[in-house]
């Protein structure tokens, strides 16, 4: 491959909002046969909105929201932002907390008036009432629990919708001969619902994956002979982006993701992934 043609390819990419970090990256782009897509912030807008609140006992919905929002005001996660925004919209006061702890891929925790309040996945709680277990398995949103001293007392569901372009973009990737996978820290139920909406096979959905395990899923595909592109936006995607044969970060995502990737997609749209693949194939065809 002549360097000039490759540079022309990267220049063309830049015009399309596809920032390719070096001319040699076009070669790995061309060889890709598998595309692993993160869910939140990649296939979806990453701007979920709070919907249902289910509470147990005498707990009021507003009290559940108030405690959850206070804890989540310390977190940058999309679920946290949805909860804090809903509290603001409803005029619920954000009380101060101490000892905030971020629990990556699981939730967050802080102390409010000497009581430990946790928001996040069921695994974080010693006790989850049956009514809340049922809420976790219902609907297509992401349901997180709120609890005091290890006992879950309420369930909050946030819904994040696919980007309008995601389904067509996944179809384009298939036409290019690539196999799409969905890799997410979110639960199986939500992951499958989104996969159905965008056209990813149920067998190719890996849900409930902790941030530190995402890269291992990419590695497992590589060990099966796949040449893998990983597309993500979050801090939790960084190691997987680095592990992949080709890492692609959404421009709207975190700096860590962009730094770990080979390509940054300024349009923040899965359609740009198909554009990047198309561009590399065209560039290298011209060279040969
Ligand atoms: P994804 O892979 O979809 O980008 P993450 O790994 O960031 O998702 O998070 C996985 C799951 O962990 C979320 O769907 C949510 O259930 C839970 N979670 C993570 N961070 C928080 C938080 N700050 N508050 C509540 N739940 C959280
Ligand atoms: Mg994400």
UniProtKB/TrEMBL annotation:
Signal peptide: none annotated. It is found in: Cell membrane. Its main location: membrane. The keyword Transmembrane applies. Keywords: ATP-binding, Cell membrane, Membrane, Metal-binding, Nucleotide-binding, Translocase, Transmembrane, Transmembrane helix. Belongs to the cation transport ATPase (P-type) (TC 3.A.3) family. Type IB subfamily. This is Heavy metal translocating P-type ATPase. It comes from Ornithinimicrobium kibberense. The lineage of its organism: Bacteria, Bacillati, Actinomycetota, Actinomycetes, Micrococcales. The chain holds residues 399 to 686 of 737 of the full protein.
């Amino acid at each position: 491959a002549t360097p000039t043609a490759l540079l022309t390819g990267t220049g063309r990419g830049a015009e399309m909002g596809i920032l390719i970090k070096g001319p040699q990256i076009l070669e790995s782009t061309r060889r890709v046969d598998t595309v692993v897509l993160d869910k939140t912030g990649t296939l979806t807008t990453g701007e979920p909105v709070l919907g249902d609140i289910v509470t147990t006992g005498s707990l009021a919905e507003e009290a559940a929201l108030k405690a959850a929002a206070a804890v989540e005001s310390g977190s940058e996660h999309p679920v946290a932002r949805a909860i804090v925004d809903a509290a603001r919209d409803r005029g619920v006061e954000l009380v101060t907390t101490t000892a905030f702890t971020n629990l990556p891929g699981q939730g967050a925790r802080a102390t409010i008036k000497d009581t430990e309040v946790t928001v996040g996945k069921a695994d974080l709680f010693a006790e989850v009432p049956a009514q809340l277990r049922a809420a976790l398995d219902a609907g297509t949103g992401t349901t997180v629990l709120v609890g005091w001293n290890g006992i879950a007392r309420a369930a909050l569901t946030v819904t994040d919708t696919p980007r309008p372009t995601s389904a067509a973009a996944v179809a384009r990737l298939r036409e290019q001969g690539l196999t799409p996978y969905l890799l997410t820290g979110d639960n199986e139920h939500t992951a499958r619902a989104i996969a159905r909406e965008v056209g990813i096979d149920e067998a190719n959905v890996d849900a409930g994956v902790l941030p530190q395990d995402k890269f291992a899923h990419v590695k497992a595909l590589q060990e099966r002979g796949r040449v893998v592109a990983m597309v993500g936006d979050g801090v939790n995607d960084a190691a997987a982006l680095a592990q992949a044969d080709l890492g692609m970060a959404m421009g709207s995502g975190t700096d860590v993701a962009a730094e770990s990737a080979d390509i940054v997609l300024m349009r923040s749209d899965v359609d740009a992934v198909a554009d990047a693949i198309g561009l590399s194939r065209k560039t290298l065809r011209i060279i040969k």
